[in-house]
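Supplementary Methods. Inverse-folding protocol.

Structures were first reduced to a discrete structure-token string of length 52. This string, shown here, constituted the complete conditioning input.
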């Protein structure tokens, strides 16, 4: 499975939110895996930290 990611540069060094577009054709387990990877791998690479 391949998930395309588009990064749109802005004039700001940080952002409060990000949007990911996922197709409607994935199965439940695929969505769980993608969202887990975003939260645990991609998010921290972008400087995101969960609220405590």
């Amino acid at each position: 499975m391949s998930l395309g990611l588009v990064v749109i540069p802005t004039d700001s060094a940080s952002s409060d939110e990000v949007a990911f577009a996922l197709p409607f054709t994935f199965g439940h387990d695929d969505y769980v895996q993608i969202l887990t990877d975003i939260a645990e791998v991609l998010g921290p690479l972008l400087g995101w930290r969960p609220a405590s």
